[in-house]
Amino acid sequence: MHARLGLEKKTRNDPYILHSLTIWLETYMHWNDKLTNASLDETFKIIHPFYDFIDCSLIVDMSEVFLQDLILSDDGCSIVSQLKNYKEKADKLRFSVQVKHLNESLKTIYKEHIPDTSHMPMISIKLHNPWHGSNISGLSLLIHNLLPVGHQQSIMKYITISSGSVIIKYSVYGSTADSLIEYTGGKLQFMRLIGIFSLYINDHPVLQEDENMNFTFELALLEAVTAGNNEAVEFLLELETVNVDHTNEEGETALMLACERGHEDIVHSLLSAGANVNIQDNKGWTALMIASEHNRISIIHMLLQANANPHLKTSDGSNALMLATTNTLKNLVVTYTKPDLIKLNKWLEPLVNWQSFGLLLPGITQQDITTIEDFAMNTEQSKGALFSKWLQKNPTATWRDVLGALTKREEINLLQTINDQLQVHQCTGGMTII
């Protein structure tokens, strides 16, 4: 209401604002000429299906652009501030109220304001039982992923939920049944993977299968990864109820399955969701070992940057370095192994400007350099103290850190020497594995 009043006041003072508003809304909603020549009243009627008391992002975002400086309350608080405060409370509700509690609540809230849906296509969806425990945010995410962009209106105004299996009936404003049948028909695998076992548009069956009483979101994630369906993977991860590190009977995680199949986008999604890179399966294999065996260079980079441990061993004593199938892979893995003090002192013996080099090592500070300078007798002792301090302060130190510091210092000869030494040691088995 306040946003509407604020825009009425603004447009009275500057009619061009309405033109800017309609252009902004069409861009925001991915519409094409839907608001051309619309009055402010007509504009609000058209956008009415796309927000409600619990999902007010459209109104908040619109107000931030057009009502930033407008104050309508006696306390001097701007409309935007009031709306943002309200949205924070609404978001908490979205993430706390479960689907199973929505049915009666919706009837009560909208008893006097139920829209006429008789001329709208009706989507009837049956979901597996775990959806009962999902929250409103998850349900909204489901609807938004099922419908074309620009047709994902308020779930609170246009949805009914039945007991038993989760049965959702959702009226779609501004779409035809034929267009929805065509669109959802292209998402059959996605629907099966996320827990939909039946979907009708009016009386037309788009998907009809038996309910799977063993369905869980964790098993769905493993199946989505195996199928290589990144859309389903990202959807399940966004639900925030899925244990990303759930394992199958062999002890394999979703991350391991993605590494084995070379699904780089899915690996990235899982790592972004906090997947544990160092879980070992029933035979002691890690995601890094699997990626190494299958020659997945890009994935190995991602895993190592996510602090995958190259020193973990399988039940037969192999590690990722031993399982790497090419010298390129071996060289990559070995740069992420932990340096030891003896090799640092020996291989970096020609290093002269140890102070500047040291400041490029993760964890080393100017105070560390000053302390070493005060107590060390000569350059050799200073470098030894520096390397010892670095390994002590940085438990995740790797040869890659050393190579990076040398590169920034443009110590080309030393850089080549250490690269050569690392290759020799990984080929001869001389690398110290900690």
UniProtKB/TrEMBL annotation:
<dbReference type="GO" id="GO:0005856">
    <property type="term" value="C:cytoskeleton"/>
</dbReference>
<feature type="repeat" description="ANK">
    <location>
        <begin position="250"/>
        <end position="282"/>
    </location>
</feature>
<dbReference type="GO" id="GO:0005737">
    <property type="term" value="C:cytoplasm"/>
</dbReference>
<dbReference type="Pfam" id="PF12796">
    <property type="entry name" value="Ank_2"/>
</dbReference>
<dbReference type="InterPro" id="IPR047184">
    <property type="entry name" value="KANK1-4"/>
</dbReference>
<protein>
    <submittedName>
        <fullName>Uncharacterized protein</fullName>
    </submittedName>
</protein>
<dbReference type="InterPro" id="IPR002110">
    <property type="entry name" value="Ankyrin_rpt"/>
</dbReference>
<dbReference type="GO" id="GO:0030837">
    <property type="term" value="P:negative regulation of actin filament polymerization"/>
</dbReference>
<keyword id="KW-0040">ANK repeat</keyword>
<feature type="repeat" description="ANK">
    <location>
        <begin position="283"/>
        <end position="315"/>
    </location>
</feature>
<dbReference type="InterPro" id="IPR036770">
    <property type="entry name" value="Ankyrin_rpt-contain_sf"/>
</dbReference>
